[in-house]
Every structure is written in structure tokens, then in C-alpha cells.
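Deliverable D4.2, example record:
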Amino acid sequence: MYDIGWIKDNFDIFKDSLSKRGEEVDFDKLWSLDERRRKFILELQSLQQERNEQSKAIGRIKDKSGKEFENAKKKVQDINDKIDAIKENEKKADEDFVDFLSRIPNVLSSDIPIGKDESHNVVIATHGVPRAFDFEPKSHFEIGEKLGLMDFEQAVKISGSRFVNLKGGLSRLERALANFMLDLHTTEFGFQEVSPSLLVKSEAMYGTGQLPKFADGSFQTKEGLWLIPTAEVSVTNMLADKITDEEDLPMRYTAYTPCFRSEAGSAGKDTRGMVRLHQFSKVELVTITSQSDSDQEYKHLMKAAEEVLIKLELPYRKTLLCSGDTGFSAQKTHDLEVWLPSQNCYREISSCSIFGDFQSRRMKARYRKKGEKETKFLHTMNGSGLAVGRTIVAIIENYQNKNGSITLPEVLRQYMGGATVIS
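Output generated by the structure prediction step:
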């Protein structure tokens, strides 16, 4: 969310960024809401000043039992009544203003390619060569179901569509992948492992940009708490309403959690298999840093996510998202897309985004340089390191054998009790 003063001072940049996103904002309404809010603030200030003057006048009245004193007291009470009424109006005006402002997306980085949708994303690097099969490769769900280790049918009976039950070797593979990823990020890239809450308040969802605009994309309990759509929400909000010492930055966190998404608007997309589920597990990477180190830390975070794919020896490519495909809170996003033989294409397995101070303004998360009074808003970024379910999909499809078994990537075998194959 942006400060209204910054928007006015940088209006051309702001408007141009929204145009590149294909977003339309009613600026006349925004100015009107801001003017209405300011009008009430000025009225309050004027009445408060008048009340102070009347209070001083009361103090100068010597006869506290006379009519002059009673009239003065009545005048102060009338002013207080007006102040209470205007405070209510000012509160409502401010809520309307903030709600409108909070639905406007982040300003894009200047190096984002212009485009309407994913077809205009730009591939900037490719790593590895897709395997040449001497048989027709099957989809992950065909292999998983034939092995008896991937059960969609019973999951539908238990929970509904877009759920799966994993068993045996595939269930252990999920645990192995999480342990491998966490070990890699903590030992080689300096991330601290955290175990965050899976239920969060609306304020936390608002802080990272899920609310108010994307409420239909997540699940909410009857008590009003939200199931996290990503560990980003819990982890980033660990610094909400805090002032951090600059010398403690950067703060790098990694977390393995289940994630829950309603997949609103994805009807008909990836209806079979594990690519798009309501519940899935993910290892998340979150970095919180200063403005000056922001770009450097973003590269470090992406490198950590890429290293998972490199060590698993999975072919992938890195894509820079265009303006129309960049998420609401992001200034810039790179997707890592893994090769899926059954679909003969690359599919997203990690999305790494940098937000500048967009989230920290919403969370009131700041930092201070040693010896200085002034505070600045933190810079935040995150990425999947990786989506575990989609990594299972990629391993099954890229490491499948003609007899229906799955060879395990060498780096995972120590996490699988020395096993080399799932069969």
C-alpha cells in the first residue's frame, strides 16, 4: 500500500505502472475520499482548538456558581458533542479511504516486460536437458495410482475434489523432500528454520496483501481465522508492528507447512493429478532486509530455490513475469518452471517475488540504523523453495521407468533410508 503523498508526488510513475498491469483506478474517487477524510481532520483540529480556548476561559471565571460559568461549561460540552460526532465520521471516512487504497497493486519494477498475460513472460535462462525416453512417458497420477501409492478416489470421498492421499514410498518421499530442502536452505544459504502458525488473523492476511482483494482465494474458519495460503503470511508478519535494528538484517527464514487455497477461478484447470490442490505442502523462503540490500538478497533467495532443482537434477527454466502476470503485491516476479514429460512443457514449481516496502507499510514493519532516530520501512521478498507436491510430480515424471517404478534422485537416497527406487 502506498502513501497518498507519494502517489501525488509520483503520479505519472504510479499511473503508468497501473496501465502496464491493465488495472483501472478511479482516481477521482481516490482524491474525493482523501479530501473528505482531510476535511473531517481539519474540522476536528478546529473544534479541539476552540475547546482548548473555552477551557482556558472557564479557568479564568472566578465565580464558579454563576450563570457565566454554567454557560461556558455548556459551550464546552456542545463542542465535545460535535467532536464525538465528527470523530465517527472521520473514522468511517478513513476506513473507506484505506480500503480503496489497499486494493491498488504495487508499483512495478522498471525492467518488467510489458504484456497482458503469461504468454508475454520472458524466459531468461534454461538449465538441464529434458530426458529422451525410449518409451511413452506416463503422467504422475497414472504412475502413482498404478503403484497404489496415490489415491484420489478415496480422497474425494473424504474431502472432495482437489485432494489426494499419498501412501508408502510417495508419502515418505514428501517427508524426504521437505527435510532435504530445509537442510539445504539452513546449512548452505543461511536461512533460519521456523515452525509458524497455520491459522492467522485478518490483519496478518492484510499485511502481506491477501486481503481485502483476494478473500475468495483462501479458507476462513467460523471463528474468523484464516488457513494460510502460504507460510509467507505467518513468517513475514513476525516483524509486524516492530522496529528492527539495521545491524540485525537481513533476516532469512524458511518454513515447511501445509498450505490451503480455494483455487477460486481455476475451474477446469489441472483437474487431474497433484498440480493444483486445495491442500499442499511447501517449503517457503522469506527474506526481510534493508532497502540498500534488497536486490542482492533477492538474487540470494532465487539462488537457494534454484539449487534445489539443480541438486535434484531436474530440467527447469527461469522466467521473468510480464506486467499483466505479476502478482498484486509484487514489484517483480521470477518463476522457476520444471519440465513435465507427460505435458511436454515447463510448469511453475517456484515463484520468487520482491515487494519493496509494499508489505511492510501495511504491516508497519520498520528498521532503524544505529545511532539514528529516523526509521524506514523494511523490504520483503519470498519464494517457494520448493512446492513439495509439484516436486513429487516432477520426480515421478522425470525419473519414471518403463516398468512403472520411480528411480530416486541420488541426493534424496540418504533421506529415504538408502532406497534407490520406489516400486
